[in-house]
Amino acid sequence: MTLQPNSPAAFPNSDFARAIEVAHTYQQGVTQHRRREAEEYLMALRCTAEGYNLALNIISSEQLQVMHCFWAFNTIIHHLPDIALTIGYAAADELYSSLFSFIYRYFFANVVDSAQVTSPRPCTSTDVFPQAFAGNSPSVVTCGEARSATSGATQRHSIDFLANKHAQMMVAGLQEFFPSRWCSFFDDAFELVERSASLQQHVRDSVTLYVLRLFEYIDERVVSVRERVERRREQRARDMEVKDAMRERVIPRVTAFWYRTLYDCHLRAPGLAKTCLGIVHTYIEWVDIALFFTSEWINLLYFMLTVSNVRGAACECLCALVEKKQLPDAKLNSLRALNVVDAVPQIVSLAQASAVEGGDANFLEAVAKLVREVAVQFLALYEHIVNSSNGNRNGHHNALVGNGASATAADVGSGRDAHVEANGTQAVPHRVTSADSLGGENSNGCISLGGTSDASMQQSQHICSPPSGQFVVGHIDEVRAGLDAAVGYVLPLLSIRDDIVVDTLLPLVQAYIKSPALLPEQAEQILRTLYDHTIIHGVEKDEEQFWMDDVIDRRKQIHNVMRLLLRSHPKIVLPHMSVVVMQAAAGVGCIANPACTEAVCQGEVLREDNGQEMHLNAKTDIFGRVGNQESGGGAASAAEHVEAALRYLYEIGETIRMERLRDSEDGFARLIFAVLSSEHIPQYNCAVVHLSYFEVMDRYSLFFVYHKNCIPQLLQRLLLLPHGVLNSNEAVRGRICYLFGHLVQVLKSCLAPHVREIVTTLQHILSTATYLLPSNRRELYEAMGTLLGSTYQSSVNGTEESAVMMQRVLQAVAGGLRDVAKGDDVTCAEAVADNISYLSVLAKGLRGSCNNAGGSRRSGCDPCNDNNDNNNNSINNNIRSVVGSDFNSYGEAMTAEIFHNITADVINVSNKWHASASVRDSTAQYFTQMVHTLPFSSMNVYAPVYIGNWLTWMEAAPELVKLLRIFLQLIHRSGLCVAPVLSSLLPLLLEKAAAVGELCTTSDAEDIISEGLREQRDVYRQLLAVVHGSVQVGCANVILALPAANLNLLLRQLLTAVQLQDEAGLPKLALQIMTKITASIEPRGEPGGDGSASQRLHGSQGELNDAIWGKWANLMLNDGVRVVLHKLLSPTFDLKDAKNLFFIGEAGLLLMTLMGGPGAANQPLSAILYETFSPLVGADEATGFISALQGQTGRFSTEMRMRFCNMLKFARRRYEPQ
């Protein structure tokens, strides 16, 4: 057939069959362009009336063409929503017959007698097709005619994907037409199954699968779409109508069909049974649960737990029954009917056997979910009863027990309605003995459903009848017993070393620990099981496991649960932890010998934070469950036990107050001492053991503050033994070096007696240990700097030795720098960069310690202050002559003197190796530290040279950002003294920024900002920060004295920054700069200003005359104010955005500052504001705002900001952009 669709994307030759062949089959010689043309043609044809008519003709055709039918089904699905709105009942039934007849022919016949096919006739407005789709109707075969053709037809092997697509199409129609139309949909589906009974088995299975797919797609399109926000209100109402009709008319027959399918296929065709079970699982959530609480259903589900191919899906169905949302009384009756308390032991035994054999992981997860849900339901019932007995009766009878969200009315009542069994008779829920059904198969291979007698049935009916009143407290013993039984089987499952099982059960364990139902013996069992999971099996041989993210996360999660258990049961957790740690400290033999542990722990006492004593139970076999072969793993090694014990002690440390370590008799203090003094832990060759050991020492570092006599032993372990900073494992060594630096930072006040030995040892390590990485050396050098800096006091007495050590260390590093810089090989660049970084971290450590010990150097321009020498009379004159006198301690002065000389070497080396990016980066880090280390007298010499050279060397915009950041720190550190440096360097910085590119607003409308544009804005953000910092320290005159070209460039960028719409920081910063410059240059008519000597020395802003003010004011009025007002009134400026409210405040502050100018400077601004706002808000409002603006002093108040914002909102309605 050849059609021309109403679309420009027509396939050449307009050949539909050829288009299908090209688009959906592989053919040599067909280009990608040709295939795309075919696909476009088919997509365009699908949306037209001709495409719809063609689809119906294809469906009604006798000849089966698979791809043609597939396209036709998709086309019908596309048109069904529109057709449902335009056709009547008769046309809908005719459409249904036409669509459903296909599946009869598909399964039951190759051909249908032509006499049984209705002849085509013209389509009218009342027929299947809407008037918009006028044309000829395709042939339609009625369902009755198709059924009559099945008797003598040859059966066809089904093509599953085509039947699945047809099922999707029928369900799409069901969603639009049912239940008012297409009323026979489910009757025909079940009749299809009945008629297939006489056919071959594979055809019967195909028909069954087709009907199952119908219900699967109904769940997908109608039921499981609650979270889809795109559904219209009308569609949600339609879906609910379909669900209600199915509950009333269809679901009882469906459950019977599902039961027969499972009964027939669970052994013969397990794949089909799994599909059916998956559908049952989804329907349990919203259908009447009474339909599944029959002896047949429950026995069948329990029996399928023994069938390997379907047991996982059967377990999920049982889990869905358990977690069904119900009222408490109905929930208890459901749990009784399922008899889960008796069934869980055998289910868990099946799971454990599967875990030992390495079997189905899905079944193991399903069992874990089932047992978890059983425990959750009993826990919810228990807490409900406890709350009721405690007087919390407000609405408790309406509480739902279940895992999901709030239930519908049908769900709430489903547990108390009469049960409809598979044969249609009424029955009540009753108890089922699952022990028989788990193994109950008769001699014929059928399932044994006669596990209960009539007497027991009657008794269970009496027991399980829902009470007429509220859920009574008298059931607490039954619920408590069920909860204890369920929790008792959670622990064996939790002991299985399977990540999925642990992740499934941990939320239950956490909730159970928080509940009042937890018993002490259960808490002890839970603690032992959780501790077993913190042992990383095999880590001694494969240390990479220790660093895996999933191992770290799961271990952290388990330790969080253990800390939660500590808060509720400290008398269980603390003794357990103590015995575990003491066993680890005592050595390998004690792990297997509880008597040895008793000897080690004899007399140990732990105290809670409230002071209550808890004696250790040393005879407890802490490792009784570790390495259980039934848990799915072999026994852990001694090193793995020790590492887990040390990590246990480390994690528990998050919850205790470290002040208790002050008492040497405290249990934690004694544990730390036992671990520190253990001779067995250092003997292990496992690197992660040593890491956990030093992690514990770092966590409990305050122990060494209170017990300084233990510090030498800690230092010995860190520096002298091969498992400390010299550890052979690269990752562990890096972490230990960091921990050493942190310990030095914490204990630096206690390390004064050991400084000489530590520094000597570190120098030896750094000079001999060639395998240390540069990162390791940086950590050690920073620790050395911290240690040396902490020894300085505010006087010279007693510090000469420390000064000599510091000088020796720095000179050694500087000598190493000069040595590696002599080479000409390119590979030396990295060594040069590393040596410069060592100087940087040394300066960082020295500066931090000196600032804490001797006071920090004051920021600002101290050399310009005549009173700055009062506190430095004791400093050596040679030092003062080199570095100035702005220091509060001898250590600072000595450090500055040494680095003053070293900085010259660093500049020389960087000049030689400037081509290396790593050298430039290390030099930047070095000067960042020098800004805070050297006085301004030194930085005044080196900063211009360094910055000027770097501007020549740099290759990328990020380097300019880094340089501007260093310069900003220098400005804030030096204050007004930076003016000469600023006047010489700022023009160069502006020119370099201009080379990157000027700011522009053309890209604001783009959704994605390019990387180059982002780097450019980072440059200008930092450049404007430098200008803002300069104005803040009083250097506005330097800004205004820039060369005309540089000043114009800066002003142009300020005005452009104000207009940026997608930036929050740059516009606000630009306004602040303009405001501060305006405020700094106005003379206010007061000659001399404040008249300070320093201002006169450096050219105070108060000395600027009215001519300069006039030029600046004209610039602000003619350009600045108009740009600001244009942005505020622009429709793209969101007045409701909170961050824009800050911009409005800065704009108002600029207007207020300009309004307060000298003489008649405020008159032009008032005129501009009046001309702008009076046509928009009225003359009175504009005049009132100007008067209020003139009356503002100090700051732009919040009231004025809101008034300005409201005026802008009103003006926005009439504003027309130029």
Structural features, described:
GO terms for molecular function: small GTPase binding; tRNA binding. Keywords: Cytoplasm, Nucleus, RNA-binding, Transport, tRNA-binding. It is found in: Cytoplasm; Nucleus. tRNA nucleus export receptor which facilitates tRNA translocation across the nuclear pore complex. InterPro entries: ARM-like, ARM-type_fold, Exportin-1/Importin-b-like, Exportin-T_C, XPOT. Helix content is 64%, strand content 1%. It has 1218 residues and is mainly α. Among the domains are: 64 residues, no CATH class; 151 residues; 110 residues; 99 residues; 111 residues, no CATH class. The chain has a two-stranded antiparallel sheet with strand order 1-2. Strands 3-4 form a two-stranded antiparallel ribbon. The longest helix is centred in the first third of the chain and has 29 residues.
**From the helix content, strand content and strand pairing, which structural class follows?**
mainly alpha
Mean pLDDT: 78
The fraction of residues assigned to DSSP E strands is: under 5%
Low-confidence segments:
1-13, 110-158, 392-398, 404-469, 588-605, 613-633, 793-798, 853-885, 1084-1105
The tally of beta strands, per DSSP, is: 4
Instruction: Indicate the percent of residues in helices.
Output: 55-70%
* Largest sheet, spatial ordering of strands: 1-2
Rg of Cα set: 42 Å
Number of helices: 53
Give the N-terminus to C-terminus distance in angstroms: 60 Å
Tell me about the biggest sheet? 2 strands, antiparallel
